[in-house]
Specification:
The protein is mainly α. It is built from five helices and no strands. It folds into two domains: about 50 residues; about 60 residues. Helix 2 packs across helix 3 and helix 3 crosses helix 4.
Length: about 130
């Protein structure tokens, strides 16, 4: 029984480490990346401690007025989910703005230029008269 618990704990800690490493990749700028990495390290440490010492999580939940440690984890997951939705929304809005600006720039760059069209027509007429 204890060996199985130890195996489950090790698997959970490895999963937390892998998710933390995966989330550390990328970033908007150095300051945001540093803050995100610090927050992820705190999360990984708290997750690992809660796996090995689940009674501590229950005591923290009791201190905060929440009945069980699993309820505390659920509430934290909900908050993290909403933060993720908000940051994803802002990121996609920024990407939409960038794509719109880029699309307008490309449309203007590739649009026929009237002054060049008139010049080309004049050149063609002049060539036609010379022949």
């Amino acid at each position: 029984m204890i060996e199985l618990l130890l195996i489950v704990q090790i698997v959970l800690v490895v999963a937390v480490i892998l998710v933390s490493i995966a989330m550390m990749r990328g970033g908007v700028n150095a300051q945001h990346l540093a803050i995100r990495r610090i927050m992820l390290m705190v999360f990984a440490l708290a997750a690992a401690l809660s796996i090995f010492f689940p009674d501590t999580l229950t005591r923290v939940a009791g201190f905060l007025g929440i009945g069980r440690g699993t309820d505390l984890v659920l509430y934290a997951a909900i908050v993290c989910f909403f933060v993720f939705i908000a940051t994803t929304y802002h990121r996609f809005r920024g990407m939409e703005t960038s794509i719109t600006t880029l699309s307008r720039r490309i449309a203007l760059d590739e649009a026929p230029k009237p002054w060049l069209a008139e010049q080309n027509a004049d050149d063609r007429n002049a060539d036609g008269l010379r022949q």
